[in-house]
């Protein structure tokens, strides 16, 4: 279904981004990966779908490097058709104890990077009159939790950004939407489970259960593949008129 399209997925060396990249590749999309750490395993896994795969190591907190990544996609892939703004980090602390540099990093990576990728990818999408921008927000883009002020602000921000750009592109073939996952068992969440286990002197399995019980009524983690399948749907013709939506996939989290 996505043969001939190129997807750029930021933060796709692990977790949700890798799951989305893989699922889009299985539908035939060529993929540009991005993110920190070893990327070779991710690249090989995605390439096994039989598509062209590239990698750019841009630091998403650095506008200059983001511009270089978009140039790379233009040069080696003829541009970006599906932009998945996924890179993100977390830090948990009360606001008065929140390290200033952590606040700045969270806003830069989780929110401002999407402004840069989007403003740079849109002209090519407009020229082709087709595009998809899919922003990975969070249940925390719709509701808050204590000790996550920067993260919640960044995710509410990206939901607002999604709506504004969806309006600006409403008469074009470009759609802009957000996905709002609940808990997904990735390194970002594993750290919170491990911290809870250490803090409460309980086994990791119990900390895992408590984390789900606190927020996610289904008591099951969302999977990266389920989010990938939603990205595939949002990239399909059936979703041509889905615009400016913040779509929660959260086991019932925000229904409460
Ligand atoms: N895991 C969860 O329960 C949920 C996660 N999310 C969001 O999903 C997105 C992905 O998170 P996960 O897969 O859980 O985390 P993860 O830690 O597994 O993956 C994060 C990815 O972002 C990359 N990254 C981090 N900082 C970067 C930077 N400065 N420049 C470029 N790449 C960078 C990492 O290298 C990695 O590839 C984030 O935006 C997160 O907020 C949203 C809802 C739930
Ligand atoms: C649900 C999420 O987005 C993850 C978190 O809050 O750490």
Automatic annotation (TrEMBL):
Gene3D superfamilies attached here? NAD(P)-binding Rossmann-like Domain
GO MF terms here are: 3-hydroxybutyrate dehydrogenase activity
Supply the InterPro entries for this chain.
3-OHbutyrate_DH, NAD(P)-bd_dom_sf, Sc_DH/Rdtase_CS, SDR, SDR_fam
Pfam families from the xrefs?
A: adh_short
Origin: domain of life = Bacteria
Signal peptide interval: none
Q: Biological process GO terms, please? A: monocarboxylic acid metabolic process
> What family is this?
Belongs to the short-chain dehydrogenases/reductases (SDR) family.
The name of this protein is 3-hydroxybutyrate dehydrogenase
